[in-house]
Amino acid sequence: MLDRVLVLYVLLGWFAHLPHLTIARDVSWWQRTDATKRVDTNKSDGYSDRDGAASHSTDTVNAEGSNSRSGSSDSKLYINISTSGNKANSNISSDFSNKTKGHYNTKKGPLFGGYDPYIWDDDWSNLDPQCPRANLTQLPRPCFTLHWICVHQETLVTHDWRYSYANPRRDPLPDMPWVENWNFPAAVGTNTDALRGRGARYRLHMRSASAHEPTAALRNPVFTNCTLPLIIVADFPYNMGEFFAKVLTALDQLSSTVLDEKVTLALNTPMGLDLAPFHSLLMMSYSRYTPITAVELGSRGCSDTQLSSTGRNCEPAADEDDDSDSSRGGCRVHRAVPWSVEAAQPHCFQRVIMCKWDLQTGGGTPLAAVARRVVSAFIREGMVPASPIEYPDSSSSSSSSSRKANSGSSKDKDWGKLYLDPDDPRGSSMLRVLIESRQGPVRNIKNLDALLDACKAMNRRGFTAGSFDQLACAATSFSQPDGSVDKNRFLTNVAAVRSAHVLVVLHGAGATNSWFMRQNSSALVELRPCQFGTRFAPWPDKYMPKQHEKNDDVIRFFALNIEDQAQCLKGDIETALRNHTYRRDSVGWDASYFARDQHLVLEPGPFLAFIRHVAGLLFDVQKYRGARDADRLHGYVVPEGLMYGPLSITNLSEYRAAFRPNIIGF
Ligand SMILES: *[C@@H]1O[C@H](CO)[C@@H](O)[C@H](O)[C@H]1NC(C)=O
Ligand SMILES: *[C@@H]1O[C@H](CO)[C@@H](O)[C@H](O)[C@H]1NC(C)=O
Ligand SMILES: *[C@@H]1O[C@H](CO)[C@@H](O)[C@H](O)[C@H]1NC(C)=O
Ligand SMILES: *[C@@H]1O[C@H](CO)[C@@H](O)[C@H](O)[C@H]1NC(C)=O
Ligand SMILES: *[C@@H]1O[C@H](CO)[C@@H](O)[C@H](O)[C@H]1NC(C)=O
Ligand SMILES: *[C@@H]1O[C@H](CO)[C@@H](O)[C@H](O)[C@H]1NC(C)=O
Ligand SMILES: *[C@@H]1O[C@H](CO)[C@@H](O)[C@H](O)[C@H]1NC(C)=O
Ligand SMILES: *[C@@H]1O[C@H](CO)[C@@H](O)[C@H](O)[C@H]1NC(C)=O
Ligand SMILES: *[C@@H]1O[C@H](CO)[C@@H](O)[C@H](O)[C@H]1NC(C)=O
């Protein structure tokens, strides 16, 4: 007898109510920061706040999840189906209170009969060492298992008796989770959110097996118990920051508790879109198979190719109906695929796992640990190229500094206890600053060359901060001109940020690269254009600053808010909207987007003074935290110069009047 609980959460209703949850959460920061404008989570620009403001819902989810698991001894099975979120939950648990194996007629065949979902134990699928070992009884919310599924293109075809038309007490089909919010990955060199680039919500279909199945593989299903697909559904799938923060943390945890690396990872990309290179690279550590899209999981196999006409690698379906002609795809044994160990492409699976990972998803491995795992895998596989960034060679140009790194000058002793990695090629005497040079219509630093020259000039004049006595700045773009990032570029970016002590980016997904920096000895400086870091502070403040703080500050976060109109320029999208080049209905008219999407023309003086401030706090985390506690961590560039302050000063003039902060003039 099987004494076991299957917790099947079908969460559509929950997710369909995302905006409500969003508002509830937003209210808390609204009150906290006195924001003048609500920023909703429909806006995505690079990060998730799952480590930040959403932690309340996170805790709730965890508590519920463990409660339901701890209740497993009652053999209570419940399936939480909420079809639209408006209707009451369907109550289908009563049908499944009978846990006797075979109750649902295991003898029934596929199609009209359907299979008993409980034919085997969910603890282990298969003892063959080539097959995944997965204890699905431990599958955390919001993942669930579907049984007896064939995958055909964008449709999951269920042979589960519980949904069979032949079952007089059948249940409604479970709703598939939606990709509710996503920005279309257009090749326009920027996130399309400001261009009304939001795609229509998308999900896979699910239906019962029918009398009219389109391929032989579906007409004669052979359900594998070896290939185990995990279909990943996530909002903002094409935003690397969101994907990293939501999917990778959850996947990392799943792989350390429930799954092994023989699982097949299939991302539910909308509308037949392909994976982005970062998807494959980031997920590489979690499966030995190449990640695929959900549609590829349902690809038709060799009956669509010449293989079927030649019959090579292709057995005709012997049990086809007499009238079925081979042009309908009389081939059900297909050539092998890179996402399965099996000799022929499987189309039908005893089990398919689906997870919708989202803002509300709880748990997850801390981002810094995920980043360490991901980067170590790249390094182990020899995938990280040499850094493309050439800083002056500090060891040859300054023998005094290399001596200092290895001997014990008095200054050395101060920081050496806190930071010493003999393998770190960056050393600790020349501060290496990498500035992201963003291309495209928004968020460029327009005077990058002048900044680089000013760096050199400052270095010549003499630069000292903490252990550093030299300064070198370099610039790099993290993407190709069309905004895309291929595999080489992605890995080159990893190499580039690991060659720097300080990464300077305009707020955006480029900041995600900060996770790949060397930990405990690197800093991220996030630039925020006029008003974005003040009036709209709740938006940027809930992502990177919170995430890095929650990860023990292994990457030190610094915000530099540019609040001098002379250093901010309208972004091209806003300009084009105002000069009627863009039609109003093709651009979101939203002051917070406009603020975020400005270009900068940075005064070198305050910028470099801030870089020196960062360098002085870089290696000493206690000093760094002390500065945060003293509200002297983050910078505000005002017309008169540079001041330090806390995050989230939503009204700078009020703050200045109240606290009279010192302003360093230039
Ligand atoms: C967020 O997006 C959803 C679906 O795209 C939409 O229904 C909802 O109104 C949006 N919420 C806000 C606050 O814009
Ligand atoms: C089903 O989900 C709803 C909404 O999330 C929740 O209120 C309810 O308690 C859940 N029911 C069970 C049995 O878990
Ligand atoms: C749901 O099922 C439970 C257990 O079988 C039963 O006690 C309850 O009355 C049902 N609720 C509804 C709304 O049908
Ligand atoms: C459970 O199974 C037994 C015997 O197979 C049957 O008599 C009983 O009605 C079933 N209970 C439910 C709730 O389906
Ligand atoms: C898995 O499938 C193989 C091949 O069909 C079969 O021999 C084996 O018994 C199955 N194992 C389990 C645990 O169902
Ligand atoms: C699977 O997980 C359940 C629940 O935590 C546990 O009771 C069971 O022993 C696990 N099975 C194996 C084979 O580890
Ligand atoms: C970073 O420093 C902390 C102590 O401050 C230490 O526990 C941790 O292991 C360090 N991490 C790395 C990657 O060096
Ligand atoms: C409108 O603004 C866009 C973006 O800056 C620019 O490319 C275009 O030339 C402008 N058109 C006119 C008519 O000024
Ligand atoms: C900041 O506060 C001052 C004084 O209360 C007020 O006059 C000003 O309008 C506020 N500025 C913003 C951007 O809210």
TrEMBL record:
Compositional bias annotation for Polar residues: 55-65, 302-312
Keyword tags: Signal
Compositionally biased tracts (Basic and acidic residues): 40-53
Example of a GO MF term: glycosyltransferase activity
Keyword Lipid metabolism appears in the UniProt entry: no
Protein origin, superkingdom: Eukaryota
Signal peptide: 1-24
PANTHER family attached to this UniProt entry: GLYCOSYLTRANSFERASE
Annotated protein name in UniProt: Uncharacterized protein
Protein source organism: Volvox africanus
